[in-house]
Protein 1
Amino acid sequence: MTPLERRYRAVLRLLPAAYRAEREEEMVDTFMEAAGGGLRRPGWGEIASVLALSARVRLGGPGAPPRHLAWGAAVRLVALLGLAYQTAYAAFGLAGLPYLLSYEGDAGLLGTAGSADRLGAIADYGFPCCSAVAFVAVMHGRPRTAKAAAVLGALPALAGATAMAPSLRDLVALVFTAVPVIALLLAFPGDAAPPRRGRWLTVVPLVAGLIGYGLSTAAAAAGGVRLSPWSEPLGMAVVALVAAAPFVAARGRSPGPALALAAAGALLLIVRLPAVIGLPLEQASAGVTAMFLAQCALLVPLVVVFAWRGWRSLPPARP
Amino acid sequence: MNMTEPMFLALTALVDEPRHGYGIVQEADRLSGGRVHLKIGTLYGVLDRLAGAGLIELDHEEAHQGRLRRYYRLTDEGARVLEEEAARMAATARTATARLRARSSARLARGTT
């Protein structure tokens, strides 16, 4: 075996064993023929293509074993849930824009034209809109557009976490934003068809964001704090997840949705972490403290139960 | 199904005769005028997808220098899908050409008045 062949077979170990049993010899033959004479090691492009193939196979490519299909469904759902949240967040933010724009008194709310504040405000509204575009694109069977838009939408989180001295909040925001984007990159190959059930579901996060804004405004008008832990987008996401739990549980032996729900709950828990840890330091009122802890108390059992259920109902790996 | 360019090229490569993996890579390279050079990982993702949709199938296997070489062929369904896709692309190209012709003749007309 030449060194090139040995190295290529090592790269192919990225693929699952069952796939390799079927394909390895054929792939090595094709690669060696394509390589011709002068190559010493597989190129980075080739390695990347095997990585992409590995993701495609492990997450339910055509003819995949049921376990891979289940994982693929779970990862795809995590991507969709994350992007749906960003879409609702964008809608929530945009819904408040007319009020901010009409607020003549304090130019500092959106910065004066041309100022850094104004640029920051545009970024605050613009980047979540990129994630919303990604969500619409993936729901309409345009994975490439979705991936580009999703990565763009995640840039602020990336910038915050790679800055000079990232706080826990920055790191946690990166995880929260990046995990669904990574899921999108892994589980939606370029030739992926749009999700079967319902392009109409595309509008649900938009509507949810607008309704959420309405509820938060109503809560503020009724004398509560405008952005209490329950009436901000993250809090509403917790409520939505908890409300969805019985429906997912009723689906019984479906590992994909259960695992996705557990992952979504874990992400929400992670993003609540700085708030909970920082509670003794900030002089938060007892009420706010109770609300944060209540959200965590709802999320922890949800994550544990659904992770366990999902794991247990995964089809067995092929012997 | 979303037909990507590599998928289209692989199907086209199999129209005239069954080919093996590297044969498809070479033919795709030729058909695209050297623009599309398929990596092996990409190729097998495409072949899996096409076989899963019933557009290609295994023709035969042979041993070659101690390794396995598989030849693939286009199915009738594959030929039908390819024809549809090619017709769709041709119609779009015709529309573009017609509009461009109209644009340039409009310009010509303006120039002479």
Protein 2
Amino acid sequence: MKRDRLAVFGCNALALEVARRLKHADHDFVMIDNDEGRVRDAREEGFRAERLDYTDDEALRQLGLGGEIEGVFCLLGEDSENVFLAITARAIDPDTRIVAICREPESSSKLLAAGADKVVDPYAISGARAYDLIARPDVVELLEETVFGQQDLNIAEITIPQGSWVHGVRLSEVRRGMTQNILLLGVVDAELGQSLIFSTRNIDHNLDIGDILVIIGAREQVEAFRAMIRDVARPATSSSS
Amino acid sequence: MNPAEQVIRFAYWLDGSAVYARFKGFFYDLLIEPRSRRRAWFDTGMILLILASVFLLIYRVHHEMSRYAEMFETFVLAILAGEYLLRMWLHCACRRILIEHYEHAELVGMRFRLTPALWAVAKGKLAYMARPMSIIDLLAILPSYRPLGFMRLFLLFRLLKLFRYARSLSAFGKVVVEKRFELTTLSIFVGAVVLISSIAVYLFEAGVPGASVVTLLDAVYWAVITVTTVGYGDVTPLTIEGRVVAMILVFAGIGVVSFATSIVVMAFHEKMRELHDNRVFSEVERLSGVTIVCGFGRIGQVVAERLADAGDAFVVIDKDEAAVERARRRGFLAVPGDASESAMLGNLRLGKQATRILCLTHDDVKNVYITLTARQFSRDVLIISRANKPETMRKLLLAGANHVVRPYEVVARMAAEFIGQPVAVDALHDVVTGSKGIHLEPMPVLPGGSLVGASLGDIDFSGRNLLLFGVIRSNPEPVAGEGEHYPMSGKRFFFNPRADFKLRAHDVLVLIGYDVSLSHFRKLQGMKGAAVARARS
């Protein structure tokens, strides 16, 4: 998996949880906080942590923002701090991915306006989850044990790269040649807009470079599919199922 | 068999008789049980009856009474007398007293004597009759003796009976009883002040010609009217000394009145809150499948909104009054209180009408405590708890929670995944939450339905705009040719099965699709045989 260089701002309990997840996924990241004590806690857990003032643009640049850093997590204690950080980060680097959490529902729109790519509301999500556990426990259980769990069933996105044989080819044709056991959830087709179009709509997309396929499957199958897509040559057509 | 033994035998028989218990239970529910619906109806009926009979009394002052009015009066009398006797019967269980006496005698080794036992029963009934409410009831029945004309006044006692039926009135009565210490102190003080000032004014005024105070009664009347700041002005002092007393009395009066008001207001406020809580409890009792939401913080609010949207019954409990107020303003049932108290959980009918409880407070310690209390209370309820620290999760599960929600973990997962695969994460999130109209829905294969025995290849999912995520099979015996699967607790999940996968009854199809497509497919399942074949082609 590609190793992003990520910056996690905040060394509070939530940030530590995020850090554990990132470590589990083999991401390369550094944690930042203004408070020495929290930085120490993060280091004790084994994460790389630095004491930095997030209002100091120069320090941020030195850290790698605008350069190597490709993703920023705004997980500071106050919504106002996260907004400030998001604006700063976006100003320094227009391309970096910014994920922020909001503690009040009103801050969500402010964070998006400040430049965040995704705003996660922990309470809304937890509430939704608690509700789902009551209303649809079977679905929650299913997802927990398969896609979200430790088992080998994952969701993945594949951007069609340069030189792929898929460029200019219809989706139906790709399906015909497909041998891997994966489920195609949807396609982001640049010709039809930026949002994901679910495959249940049965649109036979004309795939181009830069389009994104979202699939679900076991890791091996996903990798095999990814390799197939990346290939320059069309795969030898096996007997159609 | 001597009479004592006969009586005891009868007492035991009554005790064991289910019919008697049911009978008594019915009347108890009707007359006494504060939360029963039947009682609410009975109370309303009685209020109307009393008001009607009092209205007749008023009417009678200037008009002649018709025969129907007389009959109505007799009817009311019969009801009131019946009620009085019923209440006396319900007041204490005399059979219990007799049995207790008998068993006590047996234990100690003395001979059981009937007379003291009967006397104990009689004492119980007399105690009932001595209660103020019972005296009022009795006085309310008396007046119908025609000869005793002035006894008509006692009909007004019937109005006092209203205190029994209107809960708010009886609340006021209880307030007075609860605050009797303060009110007694107050009365003694007022009494002393009135006594002193009335004697003083009498001494000063009575001899003076043209004074309005002539007798001691006038002086007392004036003192009371003045100290309560009413001041009719019909009796006023003329002499300077009298007026001085008046001025002092007025100031004393203001103090007294405000003191009394504050006591009553405070007590009434507390009583009102209790009444409000009781109302919520009775409301909960009337519903079914209730969810108890402990903690009305952010997460609690989100869950409450969802439950309200889905039309599910729920009640909110929070220690913080402001939070409860917020919930009430949104129209939710809410009580202030501590969810870790068993009494509160009992009032909220956990284990009976309430089958689910969510512990969503900020404090992990509290959540564990509530979970433990709830699980001890009832083995079957669904308990979902919130864990703020990762270590608490195991403790909650040990304490008896069915599921644990960890807000930070949920966020971390989403955030961490997003940074690598933003499109995929959003897609999955949309499907799981159903926010874009596309849902993940489990659809069971009904036994005897059209899908039993069908191969997946025969069902045109894509033609119906559906995506088959997989099939969950709970059947414990694996069938040949099933293919590989993912184990779930007690079940097997077949991801994206092959075309030759055969469906069996009680399998669950996990489908992804838009609402319309899903409901259409669901309807299709309801059809059988030929109709389905026609629809499929």
